[in-house]
Design goal:
heterodimer; A: about 575 residues; alpha/beta; Rossmann fold; six-stranded mixed beta sheet; 21 helices; B: about 300 residues; mainly alpha; MetI-like fold; BPD_transp_1_N (chain B); transport (chain B); MetI-like_sf (chain B)
């Protein structure tokens, strides 16, 4: 009853929602950022309309201007950014020239906003109740201490926090990522706005959590007839959630239209490229396009050989010798619960797997499943509580420190975040040569030669050795990280979410590079990821982890076509756009 | 929380033993005979000398002297000065004076750091910010004792706005000038901390979210920007509180303030082992307690921090 009342009072307050006049009209929007190196035109002439109750998605890679367009709508651009041209009309009123005070009336009440990263978007020093009440009070939705409190609880209930009363006094750090995102959704919808901007609202969350939250967001906005502007890098997600999709690249709209039509019959080459690069459940294992043809150099990939190879691959996996053998591996952490008490946390709880030479095993799971801990154990960065890891016939538990040092040489790692894993103070050449120096391989001259060779292997110019990480893009940095991992000619490379931070097009290139290198150098990969779509294209075998245990394991095709465990099936179902046929 | 405090206090025990021993040893090794020095130019009677030595345990070997001292210390007897006063009595008179001075200095420092840092941070790169930077550079490059002399000369003597020296009657008003000078010489760190935090907080995601909620700038600045920026400034100020109590010797010397620093200085000059060691011990304990309080304060300011 109360819900209906609120909806009614709101729509009587302003003009009744007319589905034929746009709620928001963006016309030739230009956004410019002033930087030390001159002006950067992030958005260059973008126009679109949003009608009441409609869900529109803007899709693009990082730097495409999709988030900038959205933040420009409520004029929350970073300090050095400004709207340099065009106009934004909300309910027919031009807000382009509004000052901060006028905008405060628009924000929250007319346009709500759900940000990307739930971890950094709540103030850590105030409790949840405070931050929700503040939003309600500012928009005049409720008056008086008691009513505001009641409304805050109602808003959080609606956003899916069942025990809101109890949790109002808790602080953000006591909430999980998914719970925080619910709080942010509650805040965004708290004043019943006409439009909700959701800027990658779930990209920091696990797929299963993502699905629950998006489903919830969808039913809430439908119930209240709230229009939604949905920003995402994921085409599948956009198609699944929005009725209209806008594809942006380099600050411009390249294509826009009804979502299914756009995905199945893309017109612009860029859209086609995006769709082709997006790994989906229908994709096949990427095979090296270099392979045996490397010596010939002229011939392209031979379709017949590729097909044969695929047929053979499963048999080949079994035949190849086991390089990494993990038996009943356990890692238990003691979590302090007070002064004297501590509870055991079984991060890795008795897992076993083999990786055959030259193949890729994907270890899949959600955050907290123990997959990264398993990787750290295999790398010897942490000591297992129990169990045995054998790499190339050497048992890690009883290896001497000398043997361990040599083992490290045969096993290398590429981490997730290419911005954090390269020392910003050192040149690319020094970064790649460091493992060689540590293991006393060659002299200065031979090391320089090896750096040039490695840069060539990851398809970067050798002149890059003199440059610094901050001059490179994310994709280039990840190539550097791969080159560093290959410097010592390892047999095993652990790829810990190595492509998760990359845009789809770059991700596709890096995955291709990894496949080429595997064929060329006969590398063995342990691929840690949460992204099942990526698993489909890289892995020969899959092990699915849940709560420290491997719940299902098998050849990739088997798992994807015929998952036995409910958990695996749930992960597969949660992949956005799983049911959509892509056209290219 | 309680366990944390207990653990920190237990950690203080070896620190306490180490400092007292070191201080005792250093004062013991100072050149000159303190008992002889007591008599000035006169040649004392050897029997009197012996008696005085025995009275202060100075005829015992070093380690015995130290242990005897420790025993007295733990039973609350801090010994007597050469002029026959109880050290506890001296401490009772000197300590409140220093506490007054330092409290005043710290409060002034904190207010200046927060206000100027906030204005500077909000107007980053503006005229006010740049002027502040220049002033901060000047203030932090002047040695404190020079600043104190200059203030004493110009404000105290030339302009006559404040008493030149404080003397026995150390009132709040009389100590305003030295307290302000101390505050000015240390406020730069706090101000820059505040400015940096404010600049960082302004571009924080949660501040943008606060704007997106429809909050006005008048609410966002104090509640989301300033509140979060205070954490490092408060801890910095609290930490300097401990350091200041132990370091007022110069200020108290110049302005003739009868506080801990001055008493300590005089005792060192006279070679009064018991007084020096007692004062330094008290200061050490105080310093440890202030530091524990600072750590606990951190947990109050930032709900993410919990001590177990």
């Amino acid at each position: 009853m109360t819900e209906e009342n609120t909806v009614q009072t709101l729509s009587t307050g302003a003009a009744p929602a007319d589905p034929t006049t746009p709620l928001v009209e963006v016309d030739d929007l230009q956004v410019t950022f002033t930087t030390a190196n001159g002006d950067v035109h992030a958005v260059r002439g973008v126009s679109f309309d949003i009608y009441p109750g409609e869900t529109v998605a803007i899709v693009g890679e990082s730097g495409s201007g999709k988030s900038t367009s959205a933040t420009a709508l409520i004029k929350l651009l970073a300090g050095n950014g400004r709207i340099s041209g065009g106009s934004i009309k909300v309910e027919g009123k031009d807000i382009t020239g509004y000052n901060e005070q006028q905008m405060a009336a628009v924000r929250g009440g007319i346009i709500g906003y759900v940000p990307q990263d739930p971890m950094s978007n709540l103030n850590p020093v105030w409790n949840i109740g405070f931050q929700v009440r503040e939003a309600i009070r500012a928009n005049g939705v409720a008056k008086g201490k008691k009513d505001i409190e009641a409304k805050a609880i109602e808003v959080l209930h609606q956003a899916g926090l069942a025990d809101a009363e109890r949790r109002l006094k808790q602080f953000p750090h006591q909430f999980s990522g998914g719970m925080r995102q619910r709080v942010l959704i509650g805040i965004g919808l708290g004043a019943d706005p006409k439009l909700l901007i959701a800027d990658e609202p779930t990209s920091a969350l696990d797929v299963t959590v993502q699905k629950v939250i998006l489903d919830h967001l969808e039913s809430l906005t439908r119930e209240k007839n709230t229009a939604m502007l949905f920003i995402t890098h994921d085409l599948g997600l956009a198609a699944e959630r929005a009725s209209k999709v806008i594809v942006m690249s380099q600050g411009k709209i390249v294509e826009a239209g009804p979502s299914l039509e756009l995905l199945q019959n893309p017109q612009h080459p860029y859209t086609k490229q995006l769709i082709a690069a997006a790994p989906s459940l229908a994709s096949r294992r990427i095979h090296s396009t270099v392979g045996e043809h490397l010596t010939d150099g002229v011939e392209g990939p031979d379709m017949l050989t590729l097909a044969e190879r695929h047929e053979d691959s499963e048999a080949a996996v079994e035949a190849a010798p086991v390089v990494v053998k993990v038996e009943d591996l356990r890692k238990t952490y003691m979590i302090r619960r007070g002064s004297f008490k501590s509870d055991p946390l079984h991060a890795v709880d008795g897992i076993s797997f083999d990786i055959h030479k030259g193949t890729t095993l994907a270890l899949v799971g959600e955050s907290g499943s123990g997959k990264s801990t398993a990787a750290r154990l295999v790398l010897g960065l942490e000591k297992p509580t129990d169990g045995q890891i054998t790499v190339g016939g050497v048992g890690m538990a009883d290896a001497s420190s000398k043997q361990l040092f040599d083992l490290r040489r045969r096993m290398q790692v590429v981490f997730q975040d290419p911005y954090a894993s390269l020392d910003p103070q050192r040149s690319i050449g020094a970064i790649i040569a460091e493992p060689l120096k540590v293991h006393k391989v060659g002299n200065r001259k031979s090391r320089d030669a090896r750096v040039a060779e490695l840069l060539d292997q990851v398809a970067l110019p050798s002149a890059m050795a003199d440059r610094y990480p901050n001059e490179l893009s994310g994709g280039q940095r990840q190539r550097i990280a791969i080159a560093r991992a290959l410097a010592l000619k390892p047999e095993v490379v652990v790829l810990d979410e190595a492509v998760s931070a990359l845009d789809v097009l770059v991700q596709a290139q890096v995955l291709q590079l990894l496949a080429d290198l595997q064929a060329e150098l006969d590398l063995t990969y342990l691929f840690i990821t949460h992204d099942l779509a990526v698993v489909r294209v890289v892995a020969d075998a899959v092990a699915v982890m849940e709560k420290g245990k491997i719940v299902e394991t098998g050849a990739t095709d088997e798992i994807f076509e015929n998952a036995q465990q409910e958990y695996t099936q749930r992960l597969l179902d949660a992949i956005p756009g799983a049911g959509i046929e892509f056209g290219a | 929380m309680l366990m944390y405090v207990v653990r920190r206090l237990l950690q203080a025990i070896p620190v306490f033993l180490g400092t007292t021993f070191l201080i005792y040893f250093m004062v013991f090794s100072m050149p000159g005979d303190p008992v002889l020095a007591l008599f000035g130019d006169k040649t004392p009677n050897p029997a009197v000398l012996e008696a005085v030595r025995a009275q202060y345990n100075l005829d015992q070997p070093f380690i015995v002297q130290y242990l005897l001292y420790l025993k007295d210390l733990l039973t609350g007897n801090l010994g007597t000065t050469f002029s026959g006063q109880e050290v506890t009595e001296v401490l009772k008179r000197a300590f409140p004076v220093t506490l007054k001075l330092v409290t005043m200095a710290v409060v002034i420092e904190f207010v200046l750091a927060v206000v100027i840092g906030l204005v500077s941070g909000l107007r980053k790169g503006g005229i006010i910010d740049n002027a502040n930077l220049v002033i901060a550079l000047v203030l932090s490059s002047v040695p404190p004792f020079v600043a104190l002399f200059l203030a004493q000369y110009f404000i105290g003597i030339k302009l006559g706005w404040a008493p030149v020296t404080v003397g026995a009657n150390a009132t709040w008003g009389a100590m305003l000038l030295p307290a302000t000078v101390i505050a000015l010489t240390i406020y730069v760190t706090g101000m820059r901390l505040m400015r940096g935090s404010v600049i960082e907080a302004q571009s924080a995601d949660y501040v943008r979210t606060a704007s997106a909620k429809g909050l006005t700038r008048r609410r966002i600045i104090p509640v989301h920007v300033a509140r979060n920026s205070l954490i490092p400034v408060i801890t910095n100020t609290a930490a300097s509180f401990g350091a200041l109590i132990a370091g007022t010797t110069v200020t108290e010397g110049i302005f003739n303030i009868p506080g801990v620093g001055k008493v300590l200085f005089d005792a060192i000059i006279r070679g009064e082992t018991a007084t020096v060691v007692s004062f330094v011990t008290i200061l050490t304990i105080l310093y440890i307690i202030v530091n524990i309080l600072v750590d606990l304060l951190y947990a109050v300011l930032d709900p993410r921090i919990r001590y177990v």
